[in-house]
Amino acid sequence: MDSKRSDPSRGAAMPLAVKILVAGGFGVGKTSMVGAVSEIKPLRTEEQLTDRSVGVDDVSGVERKTTTTVAMDFGRITIRDGLVLYLFGTPGQDRFWFMWDELALGALGAVVLADTRRLADCFPSIDYFERRRLPFIIGVNCFDGALRYDSEEIRAALDLDPKIPVILCDVRKRESGKQVLITLVEHVLAVMAERQRQPGAAVR
Questions:
Q1: Of 64 and 188, which is predicted with more confidence?
Q2: What is the span of the domain harbouring residue 97?
Q3: Do the Cβ atoms of 146 and 43 come closer than 8 Å?
Q4: Greater pLDDT, 43 or 94
Q5: Which pLDDT tens digit goes with each residue over 77-106?
Q6: pLDDT value at 120 more than 90
Q7: In the predicted model, is pLDDT for residue 116 greater than 90?
Q8: Is residue 202 in a domain?
Q9: How many domains does the chain divide into?
């Protein structure tokens, strides 16, 4: 998303607005993260799980979940003066993936949330962002009662490039979610700088 600047004669520049995706499997905590960090009342498109989802949505490991995102979550957070992130939480179920291409338009990076109880659920998100060459990081949401692994164990299990950050977090807590987003912004800047240094990169 391009930054928008005001006329210098009118005062300070407008903040840089960056579009970020929050992705991952069903029930991994995307809605919770957007809600915890957003400085505005988040937009949610949650619906109650019904009998129609039986055999369609895999709720193993998240049996207490009663709602699901059917379109997106939306929130906003100011990281620092001059930098505002607009957060778009993606739906986690296979049947809603047709929306991902629309949500990904203009995004500069993504957080892929992972749950160690259902680690394989984040593979589709990883594959999607790798194909689009969209910078992403892994946020391991540490659920109560789940087995704990360090970041390098998670990296090995997901077969990630060593440059992709893996951070442990509790997305229910604002400061933890904010640190995940700061890590993503730093990673995006590093990726952009590296691409600029590559032979044939456009000179701006």
A1: 188
A2: 8-54+63-197
A3: no
A4: 43
A5: 998 888 999 999 988 656 566 788 888 999
A6: yes
A7: yes
A8: no
A9: 1
CATH of the domain at 159: 3.40.50.300
Q: Is residue 3 domain-resident?
A: no
Per-residue 3-state assignment (H helix, E strand, C coil) for the chain: CCCCCCCHHHCCCCCEEEEEEEEECCCCCHHHHHHHHCCCCCECCEEECCHHHCCCCCCCCCCCCCEEECCCEEEEEEEECCEEEEEEECCCCHHHHHHHHHHHCCCCEEEEEECHHHHHHHHHHHHHHHHHCCCEEEEEECCCCCCCCCHHHHHHHHCCCCCCCEEEECCCCHHHHHHHHHHHHHHHHHHHHHHHHCCCCCCC
For residue 12, being part of any structural domain is answered with yes
Cβ pair 176, 170 in contact under 8 A = yes
pLDDT for position 91: 82
Would 149 be classed as within a structural domain?
yes
Question: Which residues, 6+ apart, have CB-to-CB distance to 68 below 8 Å?
Answer: 26, 46, 47, 49, 53, 57, 91, 92, 93
Predicted confidence band at 180 (pLDDT cuts at 50, 70, 90)?
very high
